[in-house]
């Protein structure tokens, strides 16, 4: 009772459950009157269903049961006795594809049977009232695949599973994929049939398919299959479980995403504290018995486990099925991929999905794809406020939140939406409407000048408001409702094939862009070009005389480079792995905004600047990314300072400049990593605009303190 957290309506959540319990919900009966168990359980089930659905979207699978609490009365020897009785259903494994209607119906029936058995067994007890129904959602953690587990007899008889008998190792995940992707004439469950060294990290199978298991730890946990999928992008995998008590297939416990042409279904078995992967050769054979008595063949969907009676129906189901998703915060069912982006933008969703933060700021959860965070600053009261005043106040409040987000994500894209209510009087008819004004997305990093960003976006919104009133004559601003700040993902691509240097940058002669047109090793070429002195042609690959496919290099400068364990093309976030192996180097990666023709960033910083430091420029185009070496950052950046004839020294971290080498050295010692930007001349004056807040006074005194200075006679001779 003390740990209850009120949710919507009559539902409460209980925090601090015992070990293994994730969530604990309670549906409380209102009033003291007697209600039929059927009626109460149906009402409670409908209310709790959406919460269970939400939890399963986050955890994918778990174990659920229900506890019903009711008050009973017993009259014996003219003595009245009342007691609270508890009825509990068994734990059941559920997944994000389970039929929740069936689950709630089965558990409700089980509880009603227990109540009837109690009254028959303890004759004389009479139901006074139902108190509450509790739903317990517990952890369900399948183990990692380990040593061999035999196929359960019921499944073995279906002949739908290939279970390789790896009794002497913990590589059952490898054996499962190899058996699925290799055609053999006989003995598919025997290891030696496949003629492979199972300890290897990479395999080229007889089917021509390559498998890369590098970087994985065996026995493999289900959650780590994601790492394998990232390295083997042509494959997709679903993992299902088996509930021995009910003898049913459950899941999927894991899904790799969109189904690829090469798709593998895996069954995960558990026993004696171990887990074991097996290949589902025929999911239709495996699943048919769960449909009850059926003589013909059925085709089962790899994702939702729905069945089709013909191959054509199965194909149509695969192409057309839209799975239902419920938003965690606003509890509205919508079809994924059809209306979700539209729904996430609606005022209805925003209002329902708001999470109060400090003061008047609210955070909106469940944004559409690509959105990380969504903040809202709400205007207080109904009175009219000047846009300048409101935008300044909102900007000051939101600035700290944007700063905190950038400390976590380093970079992103931000824009603002202003909502205001306008009034139009026409032909004695009063009309009011909410209008929306939106600024453009802008790339920001953890070194961006946030004051400048907020000022520019505020000016843009004010201009849009003025243009609206000029264009739609007659509209009058009634009040400003709110300002929303959207922070979106900014994911620079991994370095891939060659991209030419933009003309404006090429003319600076500050970048070395190696033309690796036949490979995806631009990150390697960038470092090699930065650390190798050549007499001519630094942009040509053959100048460096290296086998670029090698994992380790000893350069002519004497520097060793270790690229082992990296996957190419290399993502920016994976540069950390390289830096850990090459501790004598430090790297900063900057980006280029083509629209404004400016250098942005850094998109990546390796930490403290080492004696051997490399600045990299990351270019994007045609869906690819490309690394280049910034040979001279001062040359590259000078034009962003405006007209300047002399040389300038730019800081590798904050991009501030110094006019002399000695100043640059002193700055480097004191650099805090923050950019300090002075206001432009036309924005260097502070103005007081809230004139309506002034109070009338009977008199005012203006004093010039120079008038009290004593006059002194100075002999100018």
Structural overview:
The protein is built from 16 helices and 34 strands. It is of the alpha+beta class. It has 4 domains: 4-138, Dna Ligase, domain 1 (2-Layer Sandwich); 153-281, no CATH class; 333-488, Dna Ligase, domain 1 (2-Layer Sandwich), CATH 3.30.1490; 503-670, no CATH class. A hairpin with a 4-residue loop joins β11 and β12. The protein starts with a strand and ends in a 47-residue tail after the last helix. Mean pLDDT is 79; it is low at 16-20, 321-342 and 366-370.
State the share of residues found in helices, binned by percent.
10-25%
Structural class: alpha+beta
Low-confidence stretches: 16-20, 321-342, 366-370
Shape from CA axes? flat
Radius of gyration: 34 Å
Number of domains: 4
Distance between the termini: 94 Å
State the gist of this model.
It contains 16 helices and 34 strands.
């Amino acid at each position: 009772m003390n740990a209850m957290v009120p949710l919507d309506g009559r539902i409460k959540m209980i925090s601090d459950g015992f070990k293994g319990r994730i969530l604990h919900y309670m549906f409380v009966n209102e009033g003291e009157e007697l209600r039929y168990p059927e009626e109460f359980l149906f009402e409670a089930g409908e209310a709790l269903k959406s919460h269970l659905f939400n939890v399963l979207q986050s955890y994918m699978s778990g174990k659920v049961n229900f506890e019903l609490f009711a008050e009973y009365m017993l009259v014996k020897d003219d003595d009245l006795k009342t007691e609270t009785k508890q009825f509990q259903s068994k734990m059941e494994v559920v997944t994000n594809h389970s039929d929740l209607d069936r689950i709630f119906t089965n558990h409700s029936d089980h509880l009603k049977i227990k109540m009837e058995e109690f009254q028959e067994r303890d004759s004389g007890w009479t139901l006074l009232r139902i108190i509450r129904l509790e739903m317990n959602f517990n952890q369900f953690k399948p183990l990692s695949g380990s040593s061999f587990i035999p196929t359960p007899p019921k499944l073995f008889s279906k002949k739908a599973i290939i279970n390789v008998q790896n009794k002497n190792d913990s590589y059952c995940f490898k054996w499962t994929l190899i058996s699925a992707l290799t055609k053999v004439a006989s003995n598919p469950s025997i290891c030696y049939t496949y003629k492979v060294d199972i300890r290897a990290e990479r395999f080229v199978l007889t089917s021509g398919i390559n498998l890369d298991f590098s970087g994985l730890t065996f026995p493999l946990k289900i959650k780590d299959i994601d790492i394998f999928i990232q390295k083997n992008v042509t494959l997709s995998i679903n993992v299902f479980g088996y509930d021995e008590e009910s003898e049913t297939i459950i899941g999927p416990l894991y899904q790799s995403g969109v189904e690829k042409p090469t798709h593998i279904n895996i069954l995960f078995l558990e026993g004696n504290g171990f887990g074991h992967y097996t290949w589902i050769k025929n999911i239709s054979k495996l699943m048919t018995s769960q449909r009850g008595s059926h003589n013909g063949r059925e085709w089962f969907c790899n994702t939702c486990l729905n069945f089709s009676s013909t191959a054509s129906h199965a194909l149509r189901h695969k192409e057309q099925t839209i799975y239902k998703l419920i938003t965690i915060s606003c509890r509205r069912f919508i079809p994924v991929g059809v209306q979700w982006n539209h729904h996430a933008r609606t005022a209805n969703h925003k209002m329902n999905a708001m999470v109060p933060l400090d003061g008047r700021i609210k955070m909106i959860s469940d944004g559409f794809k690509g959105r990380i965070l969504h903040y809202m600053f709400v205007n207080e009261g109904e009175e009219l406020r000047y846009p300048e005043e409101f935008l300044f106040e909102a900007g000051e409040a939101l600035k700290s939140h944007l700063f905190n987000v950038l400390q976590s994500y380093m970079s992103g894209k931000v824009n603002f939406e202003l909502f205001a209510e306008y009034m139009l009087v026409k032909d004695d008819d009063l009309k009011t409407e909410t209008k929306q004004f939106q600024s453009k997305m802008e790339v920001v990093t953890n070194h961006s000048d946030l004051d400048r960003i907020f000022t520019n976006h505020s000016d843009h919104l004010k201009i849009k408001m003025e243009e609206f009133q000029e264009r739609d004559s007659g509209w009058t601003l009634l009040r400003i409702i709110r300002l929303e700040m959207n922070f979106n993902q900014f994911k620079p691509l991994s370095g891939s094939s060659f991209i030419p240097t933009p003309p404006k940058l090429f003319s600076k002669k500050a970048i070395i862009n190696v033309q690796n047109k036949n490979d995806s090793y631009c990150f390697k070429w960038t470092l090699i070009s930065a650390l190798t002195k050549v007499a001519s042609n630094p942009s040509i690959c053959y100048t460096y005389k290296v086998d670029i496919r090698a994992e380790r290099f000893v350069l002519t400068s004497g520097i060793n480079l270790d690229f082992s364990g990296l996957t190419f093309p290399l993502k920016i976030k994976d540069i950390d792995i390289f830096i850990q192996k090459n501790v004598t180097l430090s790297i900063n990666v900057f980006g280029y905004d083509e629209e404004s023709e400016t250098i942005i960033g850094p998109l990546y910083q390796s930490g403290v600047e080492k004696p051997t430091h490399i600045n990299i420029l990351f270019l994007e185009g045609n869906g690819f990314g490309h690394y280049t070496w910034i040979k001279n950052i001062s040359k590259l950046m000078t034009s962003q300072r405006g007209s300047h004839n002399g040389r300038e020294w730019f800081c590798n971290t904050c991009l501030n400049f110094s006019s002399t080498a000695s100043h640059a050295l002193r700055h480097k010692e004191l650099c805090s990593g923050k950019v300090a930007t002075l206001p432009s001349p036309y924005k260097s004056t502070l103005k007081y605009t809230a004139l309506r807040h002034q109070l009338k006074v009977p008199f005012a005194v203006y004093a010039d303190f120079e008038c009290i200075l004593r006059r002194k006679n100075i002999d100018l001779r």
